[in-house]
Each structure stands twice: as structure tokens, then as C-alpha cells.
Amino acid sequence: MSQQTIAFIGTGNMSYAIIGGMVKNGFAKEQIIATNRNQEKLAKVAADFGVRTTADNIEALQQADIIVLSVKPQMMAELAQSFIAAGVDFSNKVFISVAAGITVKRLQEMLGHPVKMVRCMPNTPSLLGRGVSGLYAEGTSEEENQFIEAVFNSTGLVVWVDKEEQINDIIAVTGSSPAYFFLFMEAIEQKAIELGFNAEQARALVQQTALGAAEMALSQTDISIAQLRANVTSKGGTTHAAVEHLKANGLVENVSGAMDACIARAQEMEQEI
Ligand SMILES: NC(=O)C1=CN([C@@H]2O[C@H](COP(=O)(O)OP(=O)(O)OC[C@H]3O[C@@H](n4cnc5c(N)ncnc54)[C@H](OP(=O)(O)O)[C@@H]3O)[C@@H](O)[C@H]2O)C=CC1
Ligand SMILES: O=C(O)[C@@H]1CCC=N1
């Protein structure tokens, strides 16, 4: 299983991050094929990671044992149709879909076969080996699951879920959530600029603080995140004033509502696509 070839069909933001994580963590470049209809994106992934690239999805489909479907959800049906039209026997290959909002059943319908299918919900910090991937499998063997787990372990933390609908929860908790943190960072950066720091300073200040806070949480798992926050918050002090303002203006409820909206959108997409 370790010599398997893995093809990424539609190498955009997400596949670029996974391939980067794999290569930096010891997967052989020769084992990885990246496709895209955009030559510039292919040139970048080849230059950055040295993996095999092609604009021909069918060539990649033929050569690979494991096919990662990584186009936007709305483009998946057309892609699957092109696989069927090419007349390649892919019934024994293992497919991994990273697409949000398309069920295994629907993917199998699109491909016209009950193929072995893994749903994976990764996130972009995979590029740095700091990703989280939720995995759900149907029809795969233990050996295949172990290989797929090793692929995503090379990009960060892996969690298997027993029920497919939990993939939507993973989207809300880890797939989409880097964007929530970035939004928070953007807001602090913007305010720092308004306070008179230049753009370079504002960026440096916010990224260093976010990194420091994340590293404190990572390195002190015996201390709850709430306690880490309390440790910054002097009684009657400045942080207390800021945190109380955030709470009074519904930050906690807002985050919860945002995550519900994320899950609801994934469920809606399951009906649309
Ligand atoms: N970005 C994220 O944080 C996450 C994304 N995902 C999932 O990953 C998938 C990809 O998302 P993302 O990487 O952000 O999207 P991107 O648009 O960045 O990547 C998809 C790439 O595939 C190309 N493409 C589209 N159709 C074809 C085709 N038929 N053949 C070859 N290449 C094609 C696109 O080209 P073009 O640029 O010309 O459109 C694009 O470059 C989605 O299904 C999304 O749900 C999952 C978890 C996190
Ligand atoms: O926004 C999206 O739909 C994708 C899935 C998770 C992150 N990006």
C-alpha cells in the first residue's frame, strides 16, 4: 500500500496545502500527481514541491490508485462525467472527496459505480503540517484506511468519524474555522492601523500575538483555554473591559450561530448538488 500513487484532481488551495504537507513530511514526490486546467497553478505546484503534474485528468486517473477529488463542489458532476466518458475502469480505485456538501451516495451516483469512497474534510493549515482532517470511509479495507490515515497524518491531526453527517460538524469546527480566526486577526489588524500603526507593524503585531496565544494553548494542555484567558484578565483591568464588551455584544452566541450556519449550508448543498 505504501507504494500507491495518489492523484489530486483540481489542485487549488486545498490540494496545494495537502501536497505541501505530504512532501514536507516524507511522502515520495514520484507518488504524487497533481492536475489542474490552469497551467500556471500546475507550474507552481511543480516548482514548489517537485511532484508530477498534468493538465490531463484522465491520464492521472489511469495512473493513480487513489484519486483525490478536489474541485469545487459545483464542478464535481462535470468532472465525474468526464471520467465516465473516458471509458477508464476505475471501479477498483479508491476515491477521496474533500468537497463540502456532497454525500458518498451522491458521489457514487455521479461516478456511476459504488466505488470505494472516503470523505475527507481537511483545512488549509495542512500546508504547514498543522492541519486537521476529518475522515469517513465507505467500502475501503483496513489497509486502505491506514494508508489514507498516513497521508493525512502527514498534514496534521486526523479524526475518524463513524457517521457521515459528522463531516458537516467537522467543517464547522475545523474545515471553515481557520477563516474565523483570520477574520478576528483582520479585525485587530484593522483597528491597529486606525490607532496609528503602519500596515507592516499591524500585521507583525497581530500574527505574533495569534501565534503566541495558539502556542500557549498547545503547550499547556493541562490549563483550560478559559483559564489561559483568565490569566490575561486582571480584575478590574483593561482585558476585562475588552472581554466584557465582546461578550455583551454576543461574541459567543455569534460564533455558535456561525457554526450552525456553516452546518446548515453544508446540508443545503447536499440537496442542491
Ligand atoms: N479551501 C479550503 O479551506 C477547503 C476546501 N475544501 C474543499 O476542497 C475543494 C477545493 O477547494 P479549493 O481548493 O478551495 O478550491 P480551488 O478553486 O482553489 O481549487 C480547485 C481547482 O481545481 C481547478 N479545476 C476545476 N475544474 C477542474 C477540472 N475539471 N480539471 C482540472 N482542474 C479543475 C480549478 O481551476 P480554476 O481556478 O480555473 O477554477 C481550481 O484551480 C472544494 O470542494 C472544497 O469544498 C475542503 C476543506 C477546506
Ligand atoms: O468554504 C467552503 O465551502 C470550503 C469547505 C471548508 C472550507 N472551505
TrEMBL record:
InterPro entries in the record: 6-PGluconate_DH-like_C_sf, NAD(P)-bd_dom_sf, P5C_Rdtase_cat_N, P5CR_dimer, Pyrroline-COOH_reductase
Spell out the subcellular localization from the entry: Cytoplasm
E.C. no? 1.5.1.2
GO terms of molecular function: pyrroline-5-carboxylate reductase activity
* Reactions that this protein is recorded to catalyse: L-proline + NADP(+) = (S)-1-pyrroline-5-carboxylate + NADPH + 2 H(+); L-proline + NAD(+) = (S)-1-pyrroline-5-carboxylate + NADH + 2 H(+)
Domain (Pyrroline-5-carboxylate reductase catalytic N-terminal) spans 5-101
Q: Where is the Pyrroline-5-carboxylate reductase dimerisation domain?
A: 164-269
Q: Which UniProt keywords apply?
A: Amino-acid biosynthesis, Cytoplasm, NADP, Oxidoreductase, Proline biosynthesis
Q: A Pfam family matched by this chain, by name?
A: P5CR_dimer
Q: In which pathway does it act?
A: Amino-acid biosynthesis; L-proline biosynthesis; L-proline from L-glutamate 5-semialdehyde: step 1/1
Q: Which family does it belong to?
A: Belongs to the pyrroline-5-carboxylate reductase family.
Known role: Catalyzes the reduction of 1-pyrroline-5-carboxylate (PCA) to L-proline.
Name listed for the protein in its UniProt record: Pyrroline-5-carboxylate reductase
